[in-house]
């Protein structure tokens, strides 16, 4: 059994712009909400939601030469959590991608691989030694967060049924995660 009192659930970027109808929708992204809400009802020490929180001229936007459409602009409805995500279990929010000149896929570090979001310090301060990661998109921000969690020394689990990726086939991403030491867990494990 997993000691949930020393574990944190990390909900990665479950935001309106990443759901169907959003500016950068993950295919079937809304299909994870029931599983995510079920996970968040367990007695984790902390439930931490990451949130893309971009300035209006962020470097990742295609209008600024980046690869993505404008999405998750700070303070907009697209950056908000969806109404179907149960908010009560969330104990902390980590906002990422907040600097105009730097993106952040991981919940731990900006893409420069040097600037911390504060998540590692928060987890250490709470006495967390294991993280369970779920959310959007599996092949980008979920993977980056899980791999950084391993690098920071946390036992790291990903719950595939509570994740969706841009790619319709998650096999390569899940294999990469497992090779790096991430364990894949079923929802009924908790």
UniProtKB/TrEMBL annotation:
Keywords: Hydrolase, Metal-binding, Pyridine nucleotide biosynthesis. Its EC number is 3.5.1.19. It holds the Pfam family Isochorismatase. Pathway: Cofactor biosynthesis; nicotinate biosynthesis; nicotinate from nicotinamide: step 1/1. Residues 7-178 form the Isochorismatase-like domain. Belongs to the isochorismatase family. This is nicotinamidase. It comes from Gluconobacter kondonii.
